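User: Modeling request: complex.
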Amino acid sequence: MEQLNKKIFPNRRSVVGKLLKERQDMLVVTGLGSSTYDVYAAGDHNNNFYLWGAMGSAATVGLGLANSQPTRKVLVITGDGEMLMGIGALATIAVQRPTNLTIVVLDNGHYGETGMQQSHAGKGIQLDRIAHACEFDYSVQLTTLEEIESLRQHIHSNESLNFAVIKISTENPPRTMPSRDGVHIKNRFRISLGFPPN
Amino acid sequence: MSEIDKKIVNDFVNNKIEFVTTVPCKQLAGVIDEIDSNDSIYHIPSNKEDEGIGLCAGAFMGGKRSAIIMQNTAIGVTVNTLVTLTQFYRLPLPMLISYRGELGEPVACQVEMAVHTKALLAQLHIPTYHFHNEDDVNELDAILKHTFMCNKPVAILTDATFWKGY
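Assistant: Request completed. Predicted assembly structure:
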């Protein structure tokens, strides 16, 4: 970890922008806080399900969505603290083995929303190795912006259960907020898939 | 599997519930087996109940009606997820709950959660139904229709007397 800490990691907005390039009909779930702002900053989309709460639930929402939309790619973008809070979900997901689900953890090693306290990931816990131990088809840790394109291509061109930790800098870009109204976000998302609000 | 287990799962199917997540429970074991073997319901077992609430939210966002089966201790576990996910996004969610800690309960510790169960559900403004007698199950179909009409989490508490002991 010492060596990693000395490296300058990419900026979170650049990472998410590259990851969502040419997203096609991909469905995106965001973990609360900065991940939600990052995905919105990359371009609002009817197929974005922004979480504003339920910390620790981004991955399980992704699994439920991947199960009910098996022909669509589902991408969960969340933070290291959010993923740590729902870490048991990795086992539940791995048992189901959906091949249309990718979980990306933007790992700055800190809880950015609550005052930059260090997370367990910041203290050396490697989330990709937990995913690897759960036998995800593909689990990686990326540390450069150049590697994001190969991850993006892997997601779009393979049917596999993917987990990627992307190390990012602790830089805290200005907040860019999507709709704060849960019912609006839900209705917009479901209507875009051809379902009524209820 | 008892007739009650079959009736419960038939009511789920007839109300187009296609996705169910469960956390194990001895009282609900027969229902869980019936769900597992039913071809029109996809069953995902969860480690913990708040995982299950997330799964149900995702499944509903993707167009499948979902439901969760768990014990009443789960009300303690899931409050934040119920409020900031199920309620904030106004998602329908039938919650079939074994009401441990009521008459006939052999485990004293279960009573500690039983005494808070209805109070918590009331505080959360979650419509709550309590199955005590066998005939109460006949209301399930209407409760499920009510849930999908109003887009809310709805609790169905099923106690030991309903299940005829442990």
